[in-house]
Design a protein that fits this description.
Oligomer: single chain
Strand order of the largest sheet: 1-24-23-22
CATH architecture: 6 Propeller
Strand content: over 45%
Order of helices and strands: EEEEEEEEEEEEEEEEEEEEEEEHE
Helix content: under 10%
Structural class: mainly beta
């Protein structure tokens, strides 16, 4: 598949790529820079919002606002007015843990996991469910780098990964209550294959995983079979999302040395490729 550079933005850590169908744009964040960026798919229009603090991940709301994970709390943000309202947190995580990958689930709640910043890492991260009324429910523990949230098209299964372990799990999911059960390991990916970072599901129920330790986008069946891989022009892909016949992919520059950056100057850019299948629906946070 031909992969092209959509925006040579050079994020330190581009992440949380999401399709805003209402406004026909791709939204994504640069985590350490504390910014959310927008790319218009029709005209290439570009806009950015500065939060002046780490932005871990975010999702779209029914109201048009965004639900945004910061280091240890979650807020609601209006991109038109700039108004911000506290929703949940501080979550009381250990000092070595910050929030990381997050997405809105089929239950209308925001799911977000933790990342341990220790060296070496410890498994102090958790998976949280943030409800529209601001309740923070701790749903699972034991993560070094919680990542890769995505749901099957029918909302009955949840994919979730721990990037540090290279392990992708599958959970049974109740879209009415948000209950999760029957966690099982789906596949473990090596450094060479691309340890699982952000992920997205397609309309056929397959999972597309950004292989952050390689330069690959891996397509994985619900039974864990590796169906194929797309080779990207730069290493460090972090998150794919589907948008009207395309797959957009964020990438990173953070942690790369001068030689790596010289060899791959567009690292941190937003890339895209033609999608062979449609994506699963994007869920909206039930704030109204």
């Amino acid at each position: 598949m031909n992969v092209e550079l959509a925006w040579d933005i050079r994020c330190e850590t581009g992440e949380s790529c999401v399709w805003d169908a209402r406004r026909r744009r791709i939204l994504f964040c640069d985590i350490p820079a504390g910014r959310i960026h927008a790319y218009g798919v029709d005209d290439g229009a570009r806009r950015s919002w500065d939060f002046s603090e780490l932005v871990a991940s975010f999702g779209l709301c029914r109201s048009g606002r965004w639900v945004v994970a910061l280091r240890d709390r979650v807020v609601l943000f209006d991109p038109e007015s700039g108004a911000r309202a506290d929703l949940a947190g501080p979550l009381g995580q250990p000092d070595n843990v910050r929030l990381n990958d997050g997405k809105v689930g089929p239950d209308g709640c925001f799911w977000v996991g933790g990342l341990d910043r220790n060296r070496p890492k410890t498994a102090d991260g958790a998976l949280w469910r943030i409800t529209p009324d601001g309740r923070a429910e701790r749903k699972a523990d034991g993560y070094m780098t919680a990542n890769g949230l995505a749901w099957s098209p029918d909302g009955r299964a949840m994919f979730h990964a721990d990037t540090r372990h290279g392990r992708l799990d599958l959970w049974d999911f109740d879209p009415a209550s948000g209950a999760i059960a029957n966690r099982r390991a789906l596949v473990t990916l090596t450094d060479a294959q691309g340890r699982p970072d952000g992920g997205a599901t397609d309309a056929e129920g397959n999972y597309w995983s950004a292989g952050v330790s390689a330069n690959a986008l891996n397509r994985i069946a619900p039974d864990g079979t590796l169906l194929g891989r797309v080779v990207l022009p730069v290493p460090g892909p972090t998150m794919p999302c589907f948008a009207e016949g395309w797959i957009y992919v964020t990438t990173l520059r953070e942690g790369r040395n001068a030689a790596q950056l010289e060899a791959n100057p567009t690292m941190g850019g937003l890339f895209r490729l033609r999608a062979p299948v449609a994506g699963a629906p994007v869920a909206l946070f039930a704030d109204i």
